Amino acid sequence: MCGIIGYIGSKPAREIIINGLKRLEYRGYDSAGLALVNGETKIFKCKGRVRDLEEMVSKSSFNGTIGMGHTRWATHGEPNELNAHPQVSFKGNFIVVHNGIIENYATLKKHLQGRGIVFTSQTDTEVLANLIEHMYIEGDLTAEQAITLALNRVEGAYGLVIICSKEPDKLFAAKKGSPLVIGVGEGENFIASDATPIVEYTQRVIYLNDDDLAIIRKDELILKTLKNEQIKPEVKKIDLKLGEIDKEGFDHFMLKEIFEQPRAIHDTFRGRVLPDHSGIMLGGLHDVLETMSQSERIIIIACGTSWHAGLLGEYFFEEYTRIPVEVEYASEFRYRNPIIKKGDIVIAISQSGETADTLAAVKLARQKGAKVIGICNVVGSSIPRETDAGVYTHAGPEIGVASTKAFTTQVTVLAMMAFELGHLKGIISDSYYKELITELVSIPGKIEKALGVNEQAKELSKIFRDCHNALYLGRGYLFPVALEGALKLKEISYIHAEGYPAAEMKHGPIALIDENMPVVVVATKDDTYEKIINNIQEIKARKGKVIAIVTEGDEIISKMADYVLEVPETLAAFSGILAVIPLQLLSYHIAVLRGCNVDQPRNLAKSVTVE
Ligand code: G6P
Questions:
Q1: Contact 484, 308 (CB under 8 A)
Q2: Phi and psi of 319, rounded to 5°?
Q3: Looking at the predicted structure, is the pLDDT value of residue 240 above 60?
Q4: How much is the pTM?
Q5: To the nearest whole number, what is the mean pLDDT of the chain?
Q6: Active site residue 224
Q7: Are 520 and 485 in contact (CB under 8 A)?
Q8: Rounded to whole angstroms, how far apart are CA atoms 608 and 611?
Q9: Per the residue annotation, which of 2, 46, 303, 596 is the catalytic one?
Q10: Is residue 606 annotated as a catalytic residue, yes or no?
Q11: Starting from the edge strand earliest in sequence, which strands make up the sheet with 298-302, in order?
Q12: Which element (helix H / strand E) includes 471?
């Protein structure tokens, strides 16, 4: 998500911070800001990219030897200057840059507003800055004491760097859930959300742990826990080249993003699930939930991978809410004068929030009187601004063109929407609702396990690297997964691949099967399991090579298939999220072996802003 860099030493901080922000820009780029200390503390911030900030700062001669900067990927509040970081507390004593989400910000904000404190932004970060200031003033505390007290009241995730203007010889840094690393120099120190902006100055780093608080001076480092226990800093030497680190050691962004899925999905449901698993609360749908529950039809519109997530959405909504669903390619929908009745719900799914066809379809649906709901990843992008309500996936920036974590987080949101609505309509009982939520919460751990097939997928890729065609089959919830698996393979390895409902194979694709045809069968255990066994037999009878994605411990299909990749057992509703993991890994490794440009495949773009 957001990028943070802080510096304290004797060199001009401004240049170090701007350069650092440029290196961190891949983490977010909707607004940027910095604070410099030199007697007084001056703040510069703007909407847009780091180069816009650089241009703004270049008009001032102000500099300092202490400072911090931030490049934002918005979570709370649209990208604009007011919501950009640093955020300043109401008396101006605390200046904060933050990466993460303060989950209990609404409660804290209400409490502080009750004390007469006025807020100027929509960010959760300002709530934290004001909470610290409030404690500082009320308790007559030191900055360190106020920060510690405030952080003990905060729930959620944060990587923070804080300047107290009354104690301007130090930077405070704290971490929970969002990474922070200190760069240890000679007479100077750095702090950043990853080592990218630090390695050109020092190779000696300290990784902060959750609940650590660092007090950083130019020639002194104090590390404590939030319980005020002193910690001995463990300095490590990093041996990474610039440019490698932004991929956090992975060879490609795509692989990094595949491996980020446990975290991404956790961020999707974080703060939206009641602690006792008795309910889901999607704040962005609050005003439309009642209308949704009375709707007689849902239309889902999207493109590419998001359309595949939409197909899974159809299965969810029909099963759990009994509302009929249609899933449409946005490009088709917008040009065929679709019939939309008042009371119809349209759900637009888009990672980027900028896809031209989806955006046009959203505008059309609204003109025709539908309530339009967005499921997007990029906060403040065009689609969320055009819709009546929406839910962000909070997957973090997706850089690889082939979408991975965007897909699984979209599916997570669709499942949550269907469960919440189904429960509201009385179709899902309290106990089943709780069972579904409990399983949802276990999904990040199960994905972690599913990622364990990476080495096996790599081995398999050696066998299939030179194939010219591949068939992907699945039934029920696993049919959209078959489509997505085939899309991943063709996008990045340029092998022709088709996804099909397994039973439909008999009506055409079976003619293609021979001993050279790899057939990937997504066959984890659900209601369609028995049926798909028959389909595998039909393929084997024609000498096709079967690669089966199965549930851990499966004995029947494991004996029939030529190769198997296992995923943990789960409820049918989540089978797609788990089964897609081996398919992502398989296509990734095949593409790497074929020497393809995995992150930027030919002819494709991450965000298609032309129709
Ligand atoms: C492009 C991307 C795909 C993506 C599709 C829809 O084709 O390469 O990965 O699925 O656009 O993008 P969206 O941002 O609307 O989800």
A1: yes
A2: -70, -45
A3: no
A4: 0.76
A5: 93
A6: no
A7: yes
A8: 7
A9: 2
A10: yes
A11: 325-329, 298-302, 345-350, 371-376, 389-392
A12: strand 469-474
